[in-house]
Fold each of these.
Amino acid sequence: MFISRIILKNWKNFKELNIDLKHRVIIVGPNASGKSNLLDAIRFLRDITKSGGGLQKAVELHGGVSKIRCLSARTHSDIVIGIDLSEDNTNKLLWKYELCFNQVGGGVREFRPRVKYEKVYSEKKGIEILTRPNPDDIKDEVLLEYTHLQQPTTNSDFREIADFLNGIQYLHIIPYLVKNSRQIVLPESEDYFGKNFIERMTKVNSNTRKSFLKKIESALQYAVPQFRNLRIENDDMGIPHLQVSYKHWRGQDAKQWEDQFSDGTLRLMGLLWALLDGKQPVLLEEPELSLHSAIVRKLPEIIAQTQKKRTGIRQVFLSTHSYELLDNHSIQAEEVVLLKPTHEGTEAKLSISDEEIKTLLETGMTIAEAALPATRPPEIDKLHQLSLAFGDG
Amino acid sequence: MDCNLVFEDEIHLNILKKILAETQPHVTINRIHQSGSRFYIGKKLFAFNRASLIKPHIVLADLDRIPCVRILKQKWITFEQSERLFFQVAVREGEAWLLADHKSMSTFLGISLNLLRKEVRQVENIYDPKLLLVNLARRSKRRQIRDGLVPKGSAKIGDLHNTLLSEYIQKQWEIEQARIHSSSLNRFLDKLQVFFTSLERR
């Protein structure tokens, strides 16, 4: 199953968005155009379904309704997130889920997010199997502070959606956090920000972990030829760490712990792990960071390889600025979401719907050549003309 | 009307923006394809020709070491050129067009007008305009010019080449003066006028 369409209204930069998605979704756009915010909408749905989550918690984790709501929202300020879920091989629609919420309160009353409507459509049954607010909600409005998606007692008819969303993973490794995980206290997060990256690795059963580590090690051999024998070892306190043998001029290899790895090595390991681990969609934030351009060029094919699972095709979302990543003829214009900031929020469209890009691709250009110019900030050439020098201005 | 730009480097971009702003004020820039090399433009000119059916394209390339414009065009334009594709070549580099405005350039570089005129008699004949610019900058009275335009180590241009020359183009360079001394710029401007007039007529 994969997310075959996403609909947003008043979500962060996006006043209105409605796009078809493929198994690989590549989001491009200038800085601050909302690439992360688009991934964030999917994480929000995941946060509703995770244990200890729910609507109130998800809204809190994402900064509260006033931070979530689009600045361009005016009279209609309700926030909408909708997705279609389809079958992997046939692309046949299976489910539609749509949630609309806002907040109530003000004055002496605390603001509380509240469901405006929640709908689930089942293609199998051919009908909407959930339509809220229902008579119970009207009788007791407090019920609207909870989605049916988050509660096992209310989502039994569409548990498949909840389980799917719950399995979504997000990767944005910050090497500093991995290396200093003991010193830094972070707000709770199940994401691969770094702190819990190694902990996540230990949660996988030992045979799978060994096989994943072996795969990562064999990939690393080419990227970091000095590395061998990647493993997880506990320290004296019983805390798990990544360890490798590092070949150097002495006869015997040296041991290295994760705090000695380079940023690029850690990020590559994290990326490969996230691609290998899990069946549900994975969201990757700028996977090219800290990596050599020769490795970045390989990413589309590395991703394509890891997408094919025994259970189906795993959906991968990624945001990128990288020319090298997009300079690949295997990337389809249908997979690339172009973001363009305007005064009325960010516009999102698939690059296939842009006639110019389509024509350039037909002549044999890659997405990098054809679509990246469309994301270039119009006045960027003036950047270096600012008075950046000491003493100026 | 809006159009797309295809060019090699930032100097070209600033030249094109200035020319469009002064001679075609009704034209706005839609998309920008910066190639980084002349070879790329040559290889992809066919693609831009196709895309010009959707948006007019203005393409500027440097002649560099190719003997003459005719040879370059023969090599690159192997298809039927769309009337909405404008393609011209700077002889031999965009920097030559900048040197062609003698008075502004001598003020900018901080060298005497006589010295500049002596070195830049015929800009079309300058084999390596970037190198000449660097050599003139070495003799500048202005420290900022010497520091920014003279390359260090094995670099070919100074570390503020684009910054300083972009500012020069925007604030000092006079197109009407420059076209007197550069026939390739003069040709560019004449043909650009014809290009937009015929686009508007259609």
Amino acid sequence: MPKDNLFVGLDVGSTKVAACCGEIVEGMINICGLRFRQFPKP
Amino acid sequence: METISARQIRSAVVGISGPHITTSISKGVVAVSRADGEITVSDVGRVIEAARTVALPPNREILHVIPRSYVVDGQEKIDDPVGMTGIRLEVEALVVSGATSAIKNLTKCIFQAGLEIDDLVFAPLATGYTFLTKKQKEIGVGLLDIGGGTTSLVVFEEGDILHAAVLPIGSGLITNDLAIGLRTSIETAEKIKINYASAIPDKIRESETVSLAQFDAGETEKIEKKYISEIVQARLGEIYSLVANELKTIGKDGMLPAGVVLTGGGSKLEDLIEATKDYLRLPAEIGKQNFELGGFVDKLGDPVYATSVALMLYSFEHSQSSFSPSEPGILGKAKGFLKHLLP
């Protein structure tokens, strides 16, 4: 489990990596980061 | 990611998928431990552990043991036996396993990137729980995650997972086909697929053309849009024939009342919903989040983030004991999220 108030999901596919980072702000899940990288880069 | 979020990332819930993932049904049986016969959480844990003792080759590892239903003294289809009275407790569980080498390679990559792994989760399961409603899962639905290299299918019925499979074919092959068919680079083919390809060639007029010069200054050719879509259609037909075969093996070909929910980068293909309805003879729709989220929500509609968001929500759900969000709606919706994934 995460050691801090930060939740990260990492989706490692065969042609891409996607990451989503969320935290709890005032009782709501707040998405603070989204990243997508495709290989080969289009 | 750390730059965007302005936070230091130490660990993540990592999704695993690929054709090496297989599922099987396993049964476990135990005697109820208490003298008065009341079934406890401990008994449920033991019976799931019993289901885990399935004969696997040495090169495979169990990722999840997902209870589908319990049997108490011959009484079948029990969702939660805790508190019931009986002597014999049985469980039917779906065992998800993966190749040890693939699991080790993935974990090694994550560690080398300087991250710790909070949990390793079969990605389509996480996506299924995030993108499907309780009603859909109750009446029968399939989640089709069309990725670049693989296509994942998870089927739910009566609220439980009925079947999961990963097919070794994805939308990346459509790009490759376009590159070969149009004699262009992979990069140009990818751009053509995203911007001009349709899953149904009949909807395109013969006169519509695409100039390759807009993607690559060295190209001068003009290609008929219909021809592009015919290439796409051929590969899509292959993907859907594999999906239909998979549904046939569980007797659900054309038999899922809630239809098919599409996610993944491949689901962005134009006219895919209509094509899915034609190929699979089922209702079809693009997956939408079931959770209320704040922050960078504008990008969440993009199916390429579907799995990563689902995995993030998994991480959230499994740390609920540490936090007390005041929003009951979120908690209510998140309650029980993916709890069946872990033994």
